[in-house]
Each structure stands twice: as C-alpha cells, then as structure tokens.
C-alpha cells in the first residue's frame, strides 16, 4: 500500500473533491475550504515525490513549506475579502456578488 | 499493521474531505476539514516528513482552520447557529470532477514512475533549514515579503471604512 | 540700336502705369510728377532718336530686334521691334502729344477722385501705342492694337458714373471688335499665303521681300488672295481710324475727358489705323488700294458734312477728325504714301492743339457755370459761347493757328500735307479717269467744308457777342500747364516746323527727306504715281487755296457778319431733309439700330423664349420632375425595405443573440469556473479523440 501511486491517487481524489467543492458551494468560506483541499493535495504530491525519489535532498518538503506559507497568507487575505463582502452585502453568498452579470 | 493503519488513514482522509464539500452545514464542513488535515499529517509521517507533518498540524489545524472557523462565525448571525451552506451545479460539477479524477488516475496508472533509492532520512529539520538558507534563500525572502504584504493587505481590507 | 532703347520706349510708360495703379493712390495728387518725368524721358529719347535718324539717314531699315515668341517647329511666330524713319517720327508724335496731354491734365483733371488712375491709364495707352509703332510684324502689332483698344475703352469710360460715358466706351470697344475680326482674318490669310509660298512670315519686311521676289509668278488667284487679305487687314484700320462704316464710335468717344480725346481720339490712336495701313502699304494690291481710297473719300466727305451742323464743340472736332482720317486713308489709297503719313503727323499736332484748346474753353465754361451754380447748361454747346477771344487770348491764338492749319492755309502745316493729298487724288483721276473723279471731288469738297465748319467753330466760340453774359464774365484764361501745350502745339502747326524751309509753298524739308515715297511690290507702279502727283501738284495747290478761301469766306458771311440768316437757310435745306440728315449723322446709328440691333434683339428674344420657355421650363423641368419621382421611389425602397427590413433585421438578429448569450454572463464566478472545467474537458476529449 505504501507506494507512490497510492499517494498520488489519494492526492487526485482530494484534488477532485476540492474542485467540486469550489464549483458547487455557495458560501464563500466553504469555497475557501475547497481551495485548502486542492492545496493540500498538491502538498501531498510534493512530499510523496520527495520521499519516493530518494531523500538525499528535501526540495519537495521545502516547497510544501512554501505552499503552507502561501496557504496561510491566502487564507488571511481570503477571509479579509469575505469579511468585506459580508460588510457590503450582509451575506457571504457568492450568488449575491454578481456585479459582472451581463 | 502498517497497511491497516495506512488504509484507515486514507479512508478517513477521503471520507472527511468528501464530507467537507458536500455537507450542508458549514460548521460540520470545518470539522470534517480538521480530520482531513490530520489525515494528511499522518501521510506526511508515513512519508518520513516529520517537520512537514508538524507544520501541517500547527499551521493548518492550529492556524488556518481556526481562522476559517472565525470566518464562519463572523459572517453568520449570532442568533442563527444553523450555518447553512447550500450547493449548486452539483451534476455538472460532479461530471467535471469525476472526469478530471479519471484523467489523473489514468495518468497515474499508466505512467512508469521512476522510483529512487528509498532511504530513511534523518535530520530532516537540519536539511530543510540548510535548504532554506542556501538553495532557496531568495524564494524564502520573497515569501517573507509576501507574508508581510498579506498581513498589511488583510488589515487594510478588513478595517473599518473611514 | 541697343536693346535698351526699344525696351525703354515700352518700359517707361508701363512703369508709369504700374506705379500709378499700385502706389500712386497713396501719394495722391503729386503722383503725376512720376508719370510726367517718365513720359518726358520717353520724349527725350524719342527726340534724340529722331535727330540721329535725320542726321544719319540711310535707306536701309535701321534696326531690328527679333525674338521667338512661338516656336513649334514648322509653326513659328517671331516677335520683333523695328526702328526706322516711320517709327522714329511716330514715336516723337506719340510721346510728345502724350507728354503735353499729361502736363495739360495735371490742371484739367485737378480734383478728380480717380486722378492717379487717370494717369495710369494714360501710361498704359502710351505703352501700347509705342508697342504698335515699334512692332515689326502683324501679330505683335495686333497684340498692342488690342491693348490700345483696351486703354481707349478705359479712358472713354473714365467717368463711368455717366451712362453716356459707359455706353460710349462699350460702343467704341464693340465697334473696334468688328474691324479687328477682319484684321485678324487678314493676318491669318497672309500667314497661310506666305506659308504656301514657302516661308511663313508675318513681319512687314519679310512679307514685302517675299512678295517682291515672287510677284512675277503670282497667279490671278494669288493676287485675289493678297487683295482680300489686304482689305481684311485694312478692316482693322477702318475700325480703329473710325472710317465709314465704322465711324460711329468716335463722336461718342468724346464722352471721355477732353485731354484723352486730344491724345487718343485725335492725335495718336485713331492714327494707328493709318500707321498700320502705311506699314502694309507695300503689299496692298491696286485693287485693295481702290477700296481704301473709296472708303477714305466717303469718310472724308461724309464726316465733313456732319460736322457742319453739330452744336457741341467736341462733336465738331470729332467729325473733323474722322474727316481728316478719311483724308489720310484716301491718300494711301491713291498711292500718296508720303502725303498720307505727312498728314498724319501734321494732323496729330494741330488736332491735338484744337482739342486741347476746346478743352481749355470747356474747362473755363465749366468753372464759370460751376461758379454760377448752373448745372443745366451744357458747357460744350457752342451756342452758349461767343466773344471769348478777349477773355482767353492764348487759347484763341492757338486755336486760330490750328484752325488755319486744318483749313489748309499756306504757312501752316496742314496746307502742305493736304495739298499733297489733293495732288494725289488729282493724279489718280488723271491716271484712271472714269468714276475716280469722285476722289478729287470728295477731297476738295471736304476741304471747302472743313474750312467752313472750322471757322464756324471759331466764330461761334470766340467772336460775336457772348450768348450768356453772366457766364462770359466768369471766364478766365487757363493756367500755364494748360496754356503751354497749346502754344507748343500751335507752334508745331506752322509749316516751318516740318520743313525748316521759309518758302510756305514748298513741302520739301526734313520730313520728306526722312520718309520715302513708298514702295509697292504687288503691282502698283510707284514711280508713275509719284510723277503724276508731281504734275498735279500745281493745279492742286491753286484749287485748294481757292476752296479754303471759299470755305472761310462762307463761314465769315454766315457766322461772323451774319449776312445770311442761318436758321432760315437750315429751314430751306431741311425742306429736302438735308439739314436733319447732317445733324443726325446720316442716320448711321439709326440704320445700325434697325438692321443690326433690332433683328439681333429679336433673335435673342426668340432664342431666349426657346431656351427658357421651351427647353428650360418644359424639357429640363421634366427631367427634374422625373428625377424627383425616381428619388421618391428609391427613397421609399431604401427606407422601408433596405433600411427597415434588411439593416434593422441584422440589428435585431444581433440583439436576439445578445439577449440569449447574456444569460451565460451570470456574474457568478463558479459558473465561469465550471465553464472553464467543461472547456478543459472538451478540449481534452477532442485532443484525445483525434
């Protein structure tokens, strides 16, 4: 079980679920969760490739640290935007934010 | 034993992730995400990435997830504990997601992965530190600037209108 | 002769013209000094040229300056200047009279609002006239000929506020056109004829030389062509020199300022026709000369008769001019080449003098009437004058001298030249007999009448009792700038001026020395003509003295001593319609009106009716209506079908699609994301499938 493909499959499943969540959820916070899933699936890939390509160097892990950092920053910014959205529209339902509607 | 633990971990991760995206209650989604993140931390340990696993737990579970739950709380009325989260486009989105998954799976299955010399690494923290300070010093600094910018940006976005 | 002399004769007057028209107005009245000095320099050059011509006279043509004007290979027209004895004398005549008229005008035109323009036009005229004189070929002469006509037009109509002046200028211009068309046709005939002889040329010397060498081989048809060409060119002279039947414009031209009448319509421009005939004389065939002689005779006699009855002092002089020009033309017609040109020169002097004297009288009358605030009385009507010799002694003396000259009294220049002409007509009769008797009769008859009407003018104006005592008291002699030209011209009307010879009967002098007897290369035997004139000279002198005496005597009886009641005589003559015939100028104007003007207007009205009422109103307007209908139809189809259906249809279709596609722009990011995923999937499938 503990081989590369397994990790990759798990990662792919998480990725697809993340995509699904991003596309379907109406709540902005829920969309943010979907994005976290996508990022984590990528992280899992990094670390798994790093592990199965030998561990002389740990670039994959370094990259996953970067991704975590970016995810943290992204979560902070996203939440700030969501709060702003909430202030303006009194809701976090992205359906309401349809100024681009033609 | 290892396989069993691994299987349990995998099932927990995938099921909780699924729960994250389909649950109609946002708080439940957040709780499910907690399990997913823990599951992933477990995978990192399997992958001999102890530092990443720790960082995952500390940053994701301790930071981001708390942040998200705060977000859930401040954006919902306090007298309405039922924090709903409806979905749409489920059919098309699930087609799309399934299709992407099938592509990925096809790729994963068909590819002859080059497997290196699997060794058990020790002193991963020392190695990561030396990587960050040697090979990746520029991205490292950039990321720190990015964090600063995110900090200021988030503060700016969420301040009160003057 | 260097180029500069030719060009100076043209450039100086032209510069005067340009100066006066460009900046003269800003200088104002004093600008006449520029014109005066320019013309004076011209006069000095002309005089110097004449003296050198007299002292170094040789038979060869003095100098030529030839340059190409049009050169198209086989077609080639050369322009050129020619300075020989003829042009030397003519230049002096032109510039002298021009200068005196300039001087005279400084006083006469004082206070005129277009003072500088007047001097400019005089400069233009002098320029054009010098051009005619210097031209060595027909086409160049024609160009300046038209320029002279233009300046004449401008000066006759100088006071264009008066309808009569404006009409007179138009009449002069149009009448001259009739003659000029003939002249141009003649020039073309000559050109093509010389071309058919192998060397196309238009220069006077060239044509003469060509005809001289080839006359022996002329066929009768050739001679006819040359005759026709000569008569056609002579048509130009008929117009310009106011010969019958185109004499009608000159009396009307008296509407211009009097100095202009003296310069243009007495001394120089009208003489241009004679000058041109002198130039073409060598190749006028005897038949053509016959026409010339008859035209001249008719004009000389007819105009003299008209002059008898005119009341307007300038009209008398105008008809006198026509009559004298008839003399000159007749002289050329009978072959008296020298006499014709001699009379041109003497006539220029005494007729300019007469006109300037009449101008002086009119000026005085005008001022007197102006002083009396009388604007109804005509200052030119002789019946308002009388007894003015006491008030205007200089004018009287000058006018008397000029009148004696024109009447043909010995000691005065007119006697010499007129005598030669009359001798010429007598000689012509002696040579041809038959109908040619009318030439001497016309000549001597006109001489009687000339003496009569000129003294009538003198007596009516200067003798007798003043017709208007109040006006008479206000008359003053003209100031020096006007009196000086009179005296100088009177002096030049003496016979002595042209001969330097104290014998008053002898016409031999510098003039005859300078001007040859003339040559003719197309059939006229000049030596025979000259012999005839020589023999007839004695008879002619006696007859002309007699007729001059008769004319003066009759005038004295009628007007000085009033022994015959003129009114009654006029009434008796009028019983036969004769008085009115003369007074109304033989009804030539009325005849033209009846046979030319009215039918012309009738035709014009007819064509106007056809053009406007039929063609324009019916035919053209039909097309307008038709076009309107088509436009209506096209507009309807354009708007209702093309615009409303087709063009708007496209708009509507686009709108429909837009409305439909608008749905996809939901503004919901997730839908876009979904679309992106579906697109990715689709592309992937497509790439996988193919």
Our count of helices of chain A gives 3
Secondary structure tally: strands of chain A: 0
Structural class of chain B: mainly alpha
Instruction: Summarize the main sheet of chain A.
Output: none
User: Helical stretch count of chain B?
Assistant: 6
- Report helical residue fraction of chain A: over 70%
Task: Please bin the fraction of helical residues of chain B.
Answer: over 70%
Identify the overall geometry of chain B: globular
Quaternary status of these chains? heterotrimer
The residue-averaged pLDDT of chain A reads 86
Largest interface by residue count? A-B, 71 and 87 residues
Output mean pLDDT of chain B: 85
Topology order of chain A in helix (H) and strand (E) letters = HHH
Number of strands of chain B: 0
In short:
The complex is a heterotrimer of chains A (102), B (162) and C (690). Chain A is an all-alpha fold and 102 residues long.
Task: Please explain how this structure is put together.
The complex is a heterotrimer of chains A (102), B (162) and C (690). Chain A is an all-alpha fold and 102 residues long. Chain A is built from three helices and no strands. The N and C termini of chain A lie far apart (51 Å). The mean pLDDT of chain B is 85. Helix content of chain B is 74%, strand content 0%. By secondary structure, chain B is mainly alpha-helical. With 690 residues, chain C is mainly α. Chain C has 26 helices and two strands. Chain C has helices at 3-27, 32-55, 85-108, 115-134, 138-156, 163-196, 204-214, 220-240, 249-252, 258-267, 269-280, 286-309, 313-333, 337-371, 393-407, 413-432, 438-462, 469-474, 480-492, 496-499, 510-514, 526-560, 566-575, 578-583, 588-662, 669-689, and strands at 63-72, 75-83. In chain C, helix 2 (32-55) runs antiparallel to helix 3 (85-108), helix 8 (220-240) runs parallel beside helix 12 (286-309) and helix 11 (269-280) runs antiparallel to helix 14 (337-371). The mean pLDDT of chain C is 82. At the A-C interface, helix 1 of A face helix 26 of C.
């Amino acid at each position: 079980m503990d081989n590369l493909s397994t990790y990759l499959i798990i990662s792919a499943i998480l990725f697809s679920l993340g995509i699904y969540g991003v596309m379907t959820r109406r709540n902005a916070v829920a969309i943010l969760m979907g994005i976290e899933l996508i990022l984590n699936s990528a992280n899992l890939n990094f670390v798994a490739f790093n592990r199965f390509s030998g561990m002389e160097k740990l670039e994959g892990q370094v990259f996953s640290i970067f991704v975590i950092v970016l995810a943290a920053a992204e979560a902070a910014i996203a939440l700030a935007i969501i709060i702003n959205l909430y202030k303006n529209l009194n809701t976090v339902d992205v359906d309401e934010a349809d100024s681009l509607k033609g | 034993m290892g396989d069993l633990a691994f299987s349990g971990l995998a099932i927990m991760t995938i099921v909780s992730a699924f729960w994250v995206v389909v649950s109609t209650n946002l708080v439940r989604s957040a709780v499910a995400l907690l399990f997913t993140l823990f599951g992933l931390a477990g995978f990192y340990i399997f992958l001999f990435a102890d530092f990443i696993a720790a960082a995952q737990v500390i940053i994701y579970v301790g930071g981001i997830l708390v942040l998200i739950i705060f977000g859930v709380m401040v954006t919902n009325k306090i007298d309405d504990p039922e924090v709903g989260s409806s979905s749409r486009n489920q059919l098309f989105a699930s087609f799309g997601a399934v299709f992407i998954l099938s592509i990925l799976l096809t790729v994963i299955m068909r590819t002859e992965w080059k497997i290196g010399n699997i060794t058990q690494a020790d002193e991963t923290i020392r190695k990561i530190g030396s990587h960050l300070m040697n090979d990746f010093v520029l991205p490292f600094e950039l990321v720190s600037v990015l964090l600063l910018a995110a900090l200021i940006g988030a503060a700016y976005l969420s301040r009160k209108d003057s | 002769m260097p180029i500069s002399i030719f060009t100076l004769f043209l450039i100086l007057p032209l510069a005067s013209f340009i100066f006066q028209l460009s900046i003269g107005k800003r200088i104002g009245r004093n600008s006449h000094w520029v014109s005066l000095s320019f013309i004076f320099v011209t006069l000095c050059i002309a005089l110097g040229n004449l003296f050198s011509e007299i002292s170094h006279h040789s038979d060869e043509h003095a100098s030529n300056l030839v340059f190409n004007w049009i050169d198209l290979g086989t077609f080639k027209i050369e322009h050129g200047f020619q300075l020989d004895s003829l042009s030397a004398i003519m230049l002096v005549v032109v510039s002298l009279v021009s200068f005196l008229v300039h001087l005279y005008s400084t006083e006469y035109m004082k206070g005129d609002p277009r003072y500088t323009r007047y001097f400019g036009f005089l400069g233009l005229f002098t320029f054009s006239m010098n051009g005619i004189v210097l031209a060595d070929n027909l086409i160049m002469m024609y160009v300046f000929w038209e320029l002279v006509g233009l300046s004449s037009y401008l000066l006759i109509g100088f006071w264009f506020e008066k309808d009569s002046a404006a009409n007179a200028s138009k009449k002069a211009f149009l009448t001259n056109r009739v003659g000029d068309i003939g002249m141009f046709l003649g020039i073309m005939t000559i050109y093509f004829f010389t071309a058919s002889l192998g060397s196309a040329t238009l220069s006077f010397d060239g044509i003469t030389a060509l005809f001289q060498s080839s006359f022996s081989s002329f066929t009768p048809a050739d001679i006819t062509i040359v005759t026709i060409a000569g008569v056609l060119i002579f048509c130009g002279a008929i117009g310009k020199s106011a010969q019958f039947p185109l004499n009608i414009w000159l009396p009307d031209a008296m509407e211009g300022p009097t100095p202009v009448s003296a310069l243009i319509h007495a001394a120089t421009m009208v003489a241009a026709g004679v000058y041109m005939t002198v130039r073409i004389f060598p190749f006028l065939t005897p038949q053509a000369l016959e026409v010339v002689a008859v035209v001249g005779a008719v004009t000389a006699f007819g105009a003299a008769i008209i002059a008898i009855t005119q009341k307007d002092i300038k009209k008398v002089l105008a008809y006198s001019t026509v009559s004298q020009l008839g003399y000159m033309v007749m002289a050329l017609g009978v072959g008296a080449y020298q006499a014709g040109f001699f009379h041109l020169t003497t006539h220029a002097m005494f007729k300019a003098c007469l006109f300037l004297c009449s101008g002086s009288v009119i000026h005085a009358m005008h001022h007197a009437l102006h002083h009396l605030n009388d604007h109804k009385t005509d200052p030119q009507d002789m019946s308002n004058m009388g007894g003015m010799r006491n008030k205007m002694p200089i004018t009287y003396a000058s006018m008397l001298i000029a009148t004696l000259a024109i009447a043909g009294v010995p000691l005065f220049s007119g006697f010499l030249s007129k005598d030669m002409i009359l001798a010429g007509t007598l000689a012509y009769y002696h040579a041809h007999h038959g109908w040619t008797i009318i030439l001497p009769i016309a000549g001597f008859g006109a001489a009687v009448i000339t003496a009569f009407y000129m003294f009538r003018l003198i007596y009516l104006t200067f003798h007798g009792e003043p017709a208007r005592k109040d006006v008479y008291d206000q008359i003053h002699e003209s100031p020096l700038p006007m009196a000086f030209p009179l005296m100088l011209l009177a002096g030049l009307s003496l016979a002595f001026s042209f001969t330097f010879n104290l014998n008053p009967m002898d016409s031999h002098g510098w003039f005859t020395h300078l001007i040859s007897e003339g040559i003719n290369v197309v059939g006229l035997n000049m030596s025979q003509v000259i012999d005839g004139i020589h023999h007839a000279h004695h008879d002619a002198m006696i007859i002309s003295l007699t007729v001059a005496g008769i004319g003066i005597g009759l005038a004295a009886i009628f007007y000085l001593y009033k022994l015959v009641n003129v009114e009654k005589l006029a009434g008796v003559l009028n019983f036969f319609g004769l008085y009115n015939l003369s007074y109304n100028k033989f009804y030539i104007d009325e005849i033209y009106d009846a046979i030319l003007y009215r039918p012309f207007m009738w035709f014009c009205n007819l064509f106007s009716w056809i053009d406007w009422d039929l063609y324009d109103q019916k035919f053209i307007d039909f097309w307008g209506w038709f076009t309107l209908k088509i436009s209506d139809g096209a507009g309807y189809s354009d708007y209702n079908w093309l615009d409303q259906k087709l063009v708007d249809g496209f708009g509507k279709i686009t709108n429909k699609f837009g409305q439909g596609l608008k749905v996809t722009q939901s503004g919901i990011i997730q839908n876009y994301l979904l679309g992106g995923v579906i697109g990715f999937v689709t592309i992937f499938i497509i790439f996988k499938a193919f």
